Amino acid sequence: RQMWIRDSYEAWQRCRSPEWVTSGEMLIVAIAGLIVNLISFRLLTAGAKESINGKGAFFEVLSDLLGSIGVIIAAIIVALTGWTYADPLIGAAIGLILGVVLGGIALQRFARDGWRAKEKLRLASGAFMDLLEERFADWGLTPAERDGALFAIKGMSTAEIASLRNTSEGTVKA
Prior knowledge:
This protein is an all-alpha fold. It contains seven helices and no strands.
């Protein structure tokens, strides 16, 4: 998230006061950056799955890699047209793309983790109910006693259980 905000902010600053650079120097530096970023990207690909720090470094290098590609494209546009706004506008586009893509990845991950948590809760709840049913059978509870016990386990008071079953509290307590 911080990467795309930073990239977008830097692009906005460059649009406000574009600096004149020669497209040849810009292209040489961008190609050198691309080579370094490709090497770093390759080295960090395996670590991206192992730890949160590896993922962070991976996405930082990915952002820089896309930035290098954007600068190469901007250098070519500046060389052919002289239009210096190409660099900040391409930088802003990369920032926007990173924001949308990384935001989508985060949303997908949250949805997946939420589904997994619900599934685990469903399984645990089922196992708990099986255990309760087994204990109720061992204790020889009647259906009415079983229902009362389940309501109590869910946190209902004897008054609430009596009201729900249209009976007196004394009957529920018995």
